[in-house]
Amino acid sequence: MTVASPALEAPLTTRPASNRPNTVAVGTIVWLSSELMFFSALFAIYFTLRSSAPELWSQAEGVEGPGLLNLPFAAANTTILVLSSLTCQLGVFAAERGQTRRTQGIANVSRWGLVEWFTLTLLMGTVFVGGQIYEYIQLVHEGLALDTNAYSSIFYLATGIHGLHVTGGLVAFLLVLGRVWVSKRFTHQQATSAIVVSYYWHFVDVVWVVLFSTIYLLK
């Protein structure tokens, strides 16, 4: 069944040309720069604790350290989050050409619009957060709680704060999708919202890749 794209699908290129940078995009980039400094501080704490108590990071300390981490599960969860950046960007491409919804059957992904790609990204991000919660439950069950030692504290602090950022991104996707659903016409402002949300999502994805490499892979 073919689904027609609503008034798209008015071209977004009809607005007056301007050489000024988009203030919303610039503001988002500045804000993300401050977030980068925040996560840099978390990494500094992590490596400071690791240098002051290296025994907690020894794989031999299985009951209280990295030996409890489920690397294959975390790697699969990471793959889901990384791939969600791709689906998010495909949604941005659809927004830039003014296509809010699919123009053919749902099985034909090449004809998907912003709504379909952002909905898929939302689902993948939700799976990632659910995976993190499941991992926390398993670790606590095996004896690694937030207050077990310095290693567990920084592990839960760093990954938990990142998880909250991912959750914030999911809320942003819901807001963008909600605005598209209630609007009769897709506007340039809505396209800009989709773009800046993608900036944020790519940012949390990159941060997680660094976190994953540091916590799960670095010996």
How would you characterize the overall build of this protein?
By secondary structure, this protein is mainly α. The longest helix has 33 residues, at 150-182. It has helices at residues 23-52, 71-96, 114-141, 150-182, 188-217. It is 67% helix and 0% strand. It has 5 helices and no strands. It is elongated and about 60 Å long. The N and C termini lie far apart (53 Å). Residues 1-18 have low confidence and may be disordered.
- What integer is the average pLDDT? 86
Low-confidence stretches: 1-18
Distance separating the two termini: 53 Å
The radius of gyration is 20 Å
**Shape label:** elongated
| Biggest sheet details | none
Tell me the helix content: 55-70%
Strand content: under 5%
Number of strands: 0
* Helix and strand pattern: HHHHH
The DSSP helix count reads: 5
Structural class based on helices, strands and sheet pairing: mainly alpha
Fill in the keyword field for this structure.
0% strand, elongated
Report a brief summary of the structure.
The protein is elongated. Helix content is about 65%, strand content about 0%. It has five helices and no strands.
Please give the structural blueprint:
Elements: H1 23-52, H2 71-96, H3 114-141, H4 150-182, H5 188-217
Helix pairs in contact: 1-4, 1-5, 2-3, 2-5, 3-4, 4-5
